[in-house]
Amino acid sequence: MEKKLRRSKDQMIAGVCAGIAEYMGLDTTLVRVGYVLLSILSAGFPGTLLYIILWLVMPKSY
């Protein structure tokens, strides 16, 4: 079966981090913490823009 990148129903905001975690087979909390750290430590918070773009582009899981 082919894995597809989708937003997860296990969501805190939009399910983007949980969807990435499910796709990669990682713990959801690790992906969320990694995302927050990457966003805070990078200049200008490009992670927020990336999250919004992924929210709009990634289909919902049914």
Automatic annotation (TrEMBL):
Keywords: Cell membrane, Membrane, Transmembrane, Transmembrane helix
Location of this chain's protein in the cell: Cell membrane
Protein name: Phage shock protein PspC N-terminal domain-containing protein
Residue stretches spanning the membrane: 36-57
Entry annotated with the keyword tRNA processing: no
Membrane topology: Single-pass membrane protein
UniProt keyword annotation of Signal present: no
InterPro entries, per database record: Phageshock_PspC_N, PspC
Example of a GO cellular component annotation carried by this entry: plasma membrane
Phage shock protein PspC N-terminal domain: residues covered: 3-60
